[in-house]
Amino acid sequence: MALSLRNGGFLRAAGLGNFANQYHFGITTDAEKFNCLPYVSLIHWASLNQRLRGVHMISRRSFLKTAYGSILAAGAPFELSLANSAPVSIVIPGPPGGGADAIARIVADKLGPKLNDTVIVEARPGAAGLIASNYVKRQAPDGKVLYLSSSMLVTAPAVNPTTQKLDPVTDFTPLARLTINTYLFLANKSLPVSNVREFIEYCRANPGKVKIGTVGQGSSSHLAAAYLAKAANLDVIIVHYKGSAPANQDMMGGFIDAKFENLAGTRATLSSGKVNILGVSNAERSPLFPDAPTVNETVPGLVVDDFFVIVGPKLMDAKHAQALSKALGEVVQLDDVKARLGDQLGAISAPLDPERTAEYMRTSFNRIKNWAADLNVMA
Question: To which H or E segment does residue 180 belong?
């Protein structure tokens, strides 16, 4: 028999109506396992109300820890309480509605049943991921807090070492690379070019006139544009935007001539029919655009790593990390998940185990760090 505590109904029944009205909770437990739960509702939840009286702000996670702690005090079996002390949180460094949020929800939906646990998505945006990174670093390495990030986890500290004071590998426990994200090099159709070589020739014939947009100074798109300009000895204007939307608008409006960006951020531009795909900036050709060559085929070394990874707090148990990695790999290999990843994000399922994920992240971090120094693009 399952007892569902949704939307604060159980709190209201226990005399915590005002608290329930202010906060939204979703907790599901098993009444057969917690046969003392009615007693808990009358005694321990009432005492919880006393402890929280006068508290105006409390995080969802802190509340859940306190509530489950009350159940433990009421006499729930020790091993059961350990296993259910809190839901698993997948922390993301961006706001709800972004790419990280989309893939986190896709993963959480399938991961919960594999772990026999509740999995929630927790957004902690800001400071180019530093807020989320520092939060995860402070958590216990028990597998209850996971961190899903794009390649920003390695790009930000590589480009901004003075402000992003962290090592993306040693400050965490790498668990799994989930996907490789298709990264495109696009040109406005008004430009008389159809591939990377023709673009380079056009830029050389029109020095100081071609504008390449980026989604922000120090971003992967900035690094790619700067690398192309230096490697091909081009005199171009690099224009920085604050995110994808304004860059897309100016791309379609013809104010900028080209840009590098992942597929998820540039779908609107592609749908407009006003741009051409000159190439993909990944190390290999994308199965989503099999006829598009890699930029690396024309400009050796120009490879943009764009991916999603999941890491945990530092010093996680190796066996636990392997088990989580295996579950995550199985999730992103499911046919319906692969379809959703491709359709929504232009992401290709490409799971790696903890050891290979760490190696992949370290290689990417070192390459970007060297690029940033060599190209003088420290943000």
Answer: strand 172-181
Q: How many residues does the chain have?
A: 379
How far apart are alpha carbons 153 and 150 in whole angstroms?
A: 6
Beta bridge pairs of residue 125? none
The CA distance from 379 to 376, in Å, is 9
Contact 41, 13 (CB under 8 A): yes
Tokens, residue 314: 């530092």
Q: Quote the tokens at residue 367.
A: 């390459």
**Cβ distance 223 to 375 under 8 Å?**
yes
In tens, the pLDDT along 164-215 reads: 999 999 999 999 999 999 999 999 999 999 999 999 999 999 999 999 999 8
CB under 8 Å to 184, separation ≥6 — which residues? 260, 261, 262, 263, 266, 277, 279, 280, 281, 289, 292
DSSP per-residue letters across 317-377:
-HHHHHHHHHHHHHHHTSHHHHHHHHHHH-EEEEEE-HHHHHHHHHHHHHHHHHHHHHHT-
Phi, psi dihedral angles at 308 (to 5 degrees): -120, 135
Calpha distance 238→235 (Å, rounded): 10
Angstrom distance (rounded) from CA 141 to CA 143: 6
Give the span between the Cα atoms of 377 and 84, in whole angstroms. 46
Of 264, 289, 265, residue with least CA distance to 277: 289
Residue 76: count of CB within 10 angstroms of its CB: 21
Cβ atoms of 279 and 298 within 8 Å: the answer is: yes
- For the cut 80, the answer to whether the pLDDT of residue 362 exceeds it is yes
For residue range 63-101, what is the model confidence (pLDDT) as tens digits? 544 444 444 444 433 333 345 478 999 999 988 888 899
